[in-house]
């Protein structure tokens, strides 16, 4: 990975959250999302507390909501599914605006929307404060198998390359009179996808052989601090990061206790 390579979701900054060890951020993200998912959907107030925790992290990292909100559109397909649930589910029904809606479906839709939104917001917060170089390193420190880390590293590095290749193929089709939006071009588009897959597979083999010839042993080497690698987490960092996460776990436990 090039020295300046960063994924599109990273936001340059020098906040306390940016400087936090990446493995701490990953662990906190997982615990926070588990707490959100475990919260009973029939209890509404905990989700407001979770939202406050995330917004406070945005403030610490100096991430404006206007930067985050457009990138949360990735959950749009799940929101469409949620809209259909009140009409598709059975059981007790209530009337709203002349429509008969399932109570179970409404709760299910609410759970998908609020939990999905909080999970995406938390993930974007970690992505915005963690460089592409730090992610594989953090997973290595957390004991994730080397094969998985290698796959993730190559995916991060070459997803931009493959995207550029796909755009070149698309421009080549257009320059030859292709109409990408025409249904009659579905066959040509399918062939392009197949060609891109084969090129990607062959590129992956070449890259892997090149890595082996340079002494690759199945794990990502840890770079020196200051050369693109964050220092390992200190006990103080773990304690500080545990505060908002512990609050989320406590809120989830309280919600079940008051249910």
Automatic annotation (TrEMBL):
- Which organism does this sequence originate in? Mycolicibacterium smegmatis (strain ATCC 700084 / mc(2)155)
Q: Which PANTHER family match?
A: SLL0384 PROTEIN
Annotated TM spans: 20-38, 44-61, 107-127, 139-159, 238-258
NCBIfam families with a match to the protein in the record: ECF_T_CbiQ
GO CC terms: ATP-binding cassette (ABC) transporter complex
Topology in the lipid bilayer: Multi-pass membrane protein
GO terms in the biological process aspect are: cobalt ion transport
Q: Which domain of life is it from?
A: Bacteria
Q: What is this protein called?
A: Cobalt ABC transporter, permease protein CbiQ
- This protein's UniProt keywords: Cell membrane, Membrane, Transmembrane, Transmembrane helix
Q: What is its main location?
A: membrane
Q: Does Amino-acid biosynthesis count among this protein's keywords?
A: no
Question: Any idea where this protein resides?
Answer: Cell membrane
Keyword Transmembrane helix (UniProt): yes
Give any Pfam family that matches.
CbiQ
